[in-house]
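Q: What structure does this chain adopt?
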Amino acid sequence: MVKTGTENLYREYLKAANSRWEYGNSVLYRMCDEQPEHKDIDVIVGKIWLIGRSYAAAIERRKNAVDGGDDFYYDVVAPKLLEIGPELDDRIDGLKKSKGHIVDDAKEILSTHKFLMDTFYELTGLEKRSLASKYLHFHCPEKFFIYDSRARAAIGKIVKRPNKKILLGNDDHDAEYGDFVCRMLELQEYLDEKLGTYEKPRAIDSFLLSEVK
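A:
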């Protein structure tokens, strides 16, 4: 259930919206579009480093850290992403090729997020839920909503009791991200009904951040 009047808040947001982060984000999108695969260690390090640092979700933040940041990226992170690269690339490529809306691909989206999140947990001992969502978003911006504490707080105020039908019979997902996606989809559908426009994940994320007080 979406909070009544949210469409008016969204209209006001659109009127006041600016492009102050557009160029920086475009660099990250272009990087992942030009080098989408996980076959080259330098490319892997560049992507995980730039996305994580830019979005306050750096992978080197972990339990019991003893080695330096550069060593961790090259000696631990890159080899693991190189190892899972074939499966990760297949998953991302399949979602990019899909013409369906997010709700149509929800099962694979949630499964892919959990797959990457579990990999990050193996590397860091922490639930890198936010980093997984952000890293996947820049590789497949049409399909992945960006999760972080601010977006979670904002959507929690706007969508109180989300419809969780997409989670039924689907055990291969992170419960917190699954709940978040259900709320985001409900808001996306609501805006489509009220405004006649299908708002993409980036637009909704920017709106939510504008609502954080």
